[in-house]
Design goal:
Blueprint: E1 5-9, H1 20-35, E2 40-44, H2 46-51, E3 58-61, H3 66-77, E4 81-83, H4 86-91, H5 94-103, E5 111-115, H6 121-124, E6 132-136, E7 147-150, H7 153-165, E8 170-175, E9 180-187, E10 193-196, H8 222-236, E11 240-247, E12 253-260, H9 268-294
Parallel strand pairs: 1-2, 1-3, 3-4
Antiparallel strand pairs: 5-8, 6-7, 6-8, 9-10, 9-11, 11-12
Length: about 300
């Protein structure tokens, strides 16, 4: 493949709560690794993307702003290669992610999706849980208040009322699962997969990991978890991913969160070359597809 010029779009700091440095680091390392494949990487901020037309036909990105997502979707519609897909980034917003995982039989907590202006108590009649997590449905968690643990249905109602006041129109209510909290990072279509217990490494955005407490080290099938995560990545349409799952006492893993391009903070030195390799591979696949279309 001849030398290719790539656009890299950094994540806006607003969308890296308590992880600005970590997100910047994995982006920088990935761009550096791509240069080893002979790629020239032009770096842009989300503001640059929003205010200007990006000329490069290949774009890798960590964007989260809705305006950025829509603009990258437009570029995809024009035939450009965008990694992660902006449509996949949108699929990782809470409500869409929940619907996709549940409808495609990915192990996930029992969940409700509600409008914040509605009384949630009737919906609770159809489920068997009380302790739960209330999460904004329209986007990722930006503030600590965007994800809240509640102990009963009355607390849930109060939180939903607060969301409505904040202008958040929908919320996802997840059953609280008891077990070991595991955080994972992976690359679909590659061998790279890394998992760890966040409580053991003091890895946290908002300190909510302490609700489940210190991990017991419950045995589980690591290969199966990787397979499950790669399946989820295909469903939501992203390649570079991360998230969280709960390992129950019987060793069953249930994904509770799935994100596009996280920080890879504990493993970024190992992850960045693998991400770059996958991006380069996807560029090659895109070029071959374009050549076939010309025949």
């Amino acid at each position: 493949m001849n030398e290719i010029t790539i656009a890299g779009i950094r994540r806006g700091s607003k969308y890296s709560p308590n992880h600005v440095g970590n997100d910047a680091a994995i982006f920088r390392l990935t761009a550096k690794a791509l240069q080893k494949y002979g790629c020239m990487v032009n770096e842009y901020s989300e503001a640059d993307l929003l205010n200007n037309r990006i000329k490069e036909n290949v774009i890798f990105n960590m964007v989260r702003d809705w305006g950025s997502i829509r603009k990258l979707q437009k570029y995809e519609n024009e035939g450009r290669t965008v990694i992660n897909s902006a449509y996949g980034i949108e699929n990782c917003t809470r409500e869409k992610m929940t619907r996709l995982l549940l409808t495609n039989d990915i192990p996930h907590p029992q969940s409700l999706i509600v409008r914040t202006i509605d009384d949630p108590l009737p919906a609770f009649k159809d489920v068997a849980f009380h302790n739960c997590w209330i999460k904004r449905g329209d986007f990722h968690a930006i503030h600590r208040e965007d994800v809240t643990y509640v102990r009963n249905r009355e607390e849930a109602q109060n939180i939903l009322e607060e969301y409505a006041i904040r202008g958040i129109e929908s919320a996802v209510i997840n059953e609280h699962l008891v077990g070991d909290l595991v955080k994972f990072y992976g690359i679909a279509g590659a061998d790279f997969f890394y998992w760890f217990y966040p409580t053991s490494q003091n890895h946290s955005k908002f300190g909510l990991e302490q609700i489940n407490g210190n991990a017991k080290g419950i045995p589980f099938d690591e290969a199966h978890l990787q397979h499950l995560c790669n399946k989820a990545a295909k469903i939501v349409n992203i390649h570079v991913y991360g998230g969280d799952c709960i390992i129950s006492e019987d060793g069953v893993a249930r994904i509770i969160d799935f994100n596009d391009w996280p920080s890879f903070a504990p493993c970024r030195e190992a992850a960045a070359p693998c991400i770059a390799k996958r991006i380069y591979s996807l560029i090659g696949e895109s070029c071959k597809k374009e050549q076939r279309n010309l025949i």
